[in-house]
Automatic annotation (TrEMBL):
Protein origin, superkingdom: Eukaryota
InterPro entries associated with the record: Gfo/Idh/MocA-like_OxRdtase_N, GFO_IDH_MocA-like_dom, NAD(P)-bd_dom_sf
UniProt name for this protein: Gfo/Idh/MocA-like oxidoreductase N-terminal domain-containing protein
Coiled-coil region: none
Organism listed in the record: Stylosanthes scabra
PANTHER family: GFO_IDH_MOCA-LIKE OXIDOREDUCTASE N-TERMINAL DOMAIN-CONTAINING PROTEIN (PTHR46368:SF19), PTHR46368
Pfam families: GFO_IDH_MocA, GFO_IDH_MocA_C3
All copies of domain GFO/IDH/MocA-like oxidoreductase, residue ranges: 149-262
Length: 362
């Protein structure tokens, strides 16, 4: 029996709230270990490690550089504000650290190109931290969308992601600060909506994007809520709505010529180890239009590991293949990130240009 490869050693740059979730995922992943965490102060990093139950072997650094200079760190997770991504992601790549990058990955596609080029030129694996695409439910949903008899040809997609926030959030969170995360809700919740639409269309880029209405801004000009429509040359259409000001919603509705798919918690399942979605195929009215025939089907998928741990597991597997088997980095994750950013950029351009349609160029 072949000897099992050692776990991939992760470092974390920063003590963001989302890093609590991903650090737990690293601990849960069978092929990863939490090797180091760094913050701008040693005291903050030490308290963060203690309060989140980090393993005793985890090294604690009072700087991000300390993590990047550690020769035993294989990969880094970067949950820093988006405005800092280019600086620290590029430096991480220069230090030969594989990169798991929190979304939104960049403020624009030009910045993302700098990050991807640094990873590519150093032979490193890149992945963005969009967790839901790694859930086994996502695979099963896409199998339905790919079935020509049950779903047919995709016609339209609508995606939402919104959550109501506190007054404190609206005043203090980095996602409403123009110098930290200038894209606001479009970059945060909108990223998930755009990814969902691209996923449903098998990552075929739309031809145009158009903001549906004037966004809601805060006093600093950061987007708190917005919506947009996307269209393809073959007449597929999609819409999305993202917001910090609306009650919790995480929906995908995908309509095909023969069927439809609905999921109401695609970003974060209502339960960690159980996820549902519904489908309908070739439906018609019953007598007197009193119901459907056949009725929609509900599907339940069970998983042992939460989706964020499955993300870490997949990323660590790719890193391990490079480290131990001399494999090449898997480039599909960079391609998907770039397409998502291109659509985000086009929606932002439409907003800035008076809601005019903007062509999306690959």
């Amino acid at each position: 029996m072949a000897e099992e490869a050692p776990p991939i050693r992760f470092g974390i740059l920063g003590c963001a709230e989302i890093a609590r979730k991903v650090s737990r995922a690293i601990i849960l992943s069978p092929n990863a270990t939490l090797h180091a965490v760094g913050s701008r102060s040693l005291d903050k990093a030490t308290k963060f490690a203690a309060s989140n139950g980090f393993p005793t072997h985890t090294k604690v650094y009072g700087s991000y550089e300390g993590v990047l200079e550690d020769p035993e760190v294989d990969a880094v997770y970067v949950p820093l504000p988006t405005s800092l991504h280019v600086q620290w992601a590029v430096l991480a790549a220069q230090k030969k650290k594989h990169l798991l990058l929190e979304k939104p990955v960049a403020l624009n596609v030009d910045d993302l190109h700098k990050i991807l080029e640094a990873c590519q030129s150093n032979g490193l694996q890149y992945m963005d931290a969009t967790m839901w695409v790694h859930h086994p439910r996502t695979t099963q949903m896409f199998q339905f969308l790919s079935d020509p008899q049950q779903f047919g040809r995709l016609q339209s997609v609508h995606a939402t992601f919104s959550y109501g926030v506190s007054p404190y959030f609206l005043e203090n969170d980095i996602r409403v600060k123009p110098d930290l995360d200038a894209l606001g809700a479009l970059g945060d919740t909108g990223w998930y909506c755009v990814r969902a639409i691209l996923w449903a269309s098998n990552y075929e880029l739309p031809k145009t994007a158009r903001a549906l209405h004037k966004p809601t801004y805060n006093n600093s000009g950061v987007i708190l809520a917005c919506g947009a429509s996307l269209s393809w040359e073959d007449d597929k259409v999609a819409t999305f709505y993202c917001s910090f000001l609306t009650d919790m919603a995480m929906d995908i509705i995908a309509m095909g010529t023969k069927g439809s798919l609905r999921v109401h918690d695609y970003v974060i399942p209502n339960q960690e180890k159980e996820a549902k979605f519904s489908t309908s195929s070739n439906s018609d009215w019953v007598e007197l239009s009193l119901g459907w025939a056949p009725n929609p089907s509900e599907h339940v998928i069970y998983n042992d590991l939460p989706q964020e741990a499955l993300m870490v597991k997949e990323f660590a597997s790719l890193v391990g293949a490079i480290k131990y088997n001399h494999s090449k980095p898997e480039d599909k994750w960079a391609i998907i990130s770039r397409k998502t950013q291109l659509v985000i950029d086009a929606v932002k351009a439409s907003i800035d240009n008076g809601l005019e349609p903007v062509e999306i160029k690959a």
